[in-house]
From TrEMBL:
GO molecular function, one term: phosphoribosylglycinamide formyltransferase activity
The species this protein was found in: Arenimonas composti TR7-09 = DSM 18010
Protein name: Phosphoribosylglycinamide formyltransferase
Residues binding (6R)-10-formyltetrahydrofolate: 64, 89-92, 106
EC number annotated for this UniProt entry: 2.1.2.2
């Protein structure tokens, strides 16, 4: 499977995914890395790893649709089977999503449907949640609203602040993304607009990442 990755920042999830494709845990190849931030660290990592990488800055385009069109035209050139949004911080318009319908995953740092959008760690703390986590979901035009493939959970500890919570969640995010992409790359998980299929059966609840970094759950 050929994977394109969208990034906006330091690229820690990208690093985890590339490592997993190269050591055999994910039967796929990252064939391109794309960004809205020309100076982001994730692009530098990709180039050092020998992966084609480029950015298209939104300020260079008239509007969101024009930027999306330019960026996703470049993505189309690498002919990806799957696009993974790994810390990509822009909302993607419906026209761009239609070009890759049912071929896009996103990792989001909350237990969706809780806290779509930004500042999820602060929101979880403000709400007094006992647990927090991350979700991998199929991308649809509505923000962070596509069917959820899998989740990782961590307890919220007394004294946690948003930075501490984010730091403790990050390694679970990495494991969650790798395990989720592996299911898709192996052909076991198929994406649909309103549901997901695992081994040909409709997924009723998100899979859960266990302590051994394996996804567990059931279909019905």
């Amino acid at each position: 499977m050929k994977i394109a990755v969208l990034v906006s920042g330091r690229g820690s999830n990208l690093r985890a995914l590339v490592a997993a494709t190269r050591d055999g845990r994910v039967p796929a190849e990252v064939v391109g890395v794309f960004s809205d931030k020309p100076a982001c660290a994730a692009l530098a990592f990709a180039r050092e790893a020998g992966i084609p990488a480029l950015a298209r800055a939104p300020k260079d385009y008239a509007d969101r649709d024009a930027h999306d069109d330019a960026l996703f035209t470049e993505i189309a050139r690498v002919q990806p089977d799957l696009i993974v949004c790994a810390g990509y911080l822009r909302i993607i318009g419906a026209a761009a999503l239609m070009r890759f319908e049912n071929r896009m995953l996103n990792i989001h740092p909350s237990l969706l449907p809780k806290y779509p959008g930004l500042h999820t760690h602060a929101k979880a703390l403000a709400a007094g949640d006992a647990e927090h986590g991350a979700s991998v979901h199929s991308v649809i035009p509505a923000l962070d609203a596509g069917p959820v493939l899998a989740q990782a959970r961590i307890p919220v500890r007394p004294g946690d602040d948003p930075d501490a919570l984010a730091e403790r969640l990050l390694p679970r995010e990495h494991a969650l993304l790798v395990a989720s992409v592996a299911l898709v790359a192996e052909g076991r998980m198929r994406l649909r607009d309103d549901h997901l299929l695992l081994d040909g059966e409709r997924l009723q609840q998100p899979l859960q990442l266990d302590a051994d970094d394996r996804l567990t759950g059931a279909t019905a």
